[in-house]
Structure prediction request, 236 residues.
Amino acid sequence: MKVRMGNLLRERLQSQGVNMIHFVDISGMSPNQNRGFSSAILLGMTLSLQYLKIVSNSDDYVGQMKMDGLIDQDEFHLKELATDRIADELAKYITDSGYEAFSQSENNLLNEGVYNEKYKSTPLPHKTIALMAGLGWIGKNNLLVTPEYGCAISMCSVLTNSPLNTVWNLPTKSQCGDCSICENNCNVDALKGQTWGICASRDRLIDVFKCTTCLKCMVNCRYTQAYVTKELGITC
Prediction:
């Protein structure tokens, strides 16, 4: 049953362009975090190489897109909307199949009163689930960093009690080292240059109220740039 359900969900997600799919055991988390569900489905889409090049080569990509009235056409924005929509549809598919599910899309979190607007936080961020999936660590930019894609991923998640073969991993130790590229690229000094650890709070890494989501810390991360270079076949 677990294999069959997992295959059905995986095939459904892949047909919608999702290229990162992980089933994670969240049964050991607090009820506030897992809402009583035993599993989480993490789904993600990688950002295109062309997009990453455009953003990294621009002095103020987001600012210019806003000025031109084109921010709604931004690839990252569109993939965030897409992963949210797919998560909502997946949760409905699971409930229609006779199980329970909760989409952690932005709209659903807001509608359910789960998102804390004062502190800009949720009980169970997608990146926390990604850590338990063994995908990487939290960078000094407060983003998930993966060895394969860097930070170039848009994610969402669904909590469920449907039968799935799940994994659980201890979070990977930070590999940021002495690198300060993200901090140096933050024009508003939102990043504090601190190395993440398993007990580190978000506020130790970033002032979320200063952050303008300019994307510079995401695209200029050396792991993101390594992904771009590798995929384009560029040798140094």
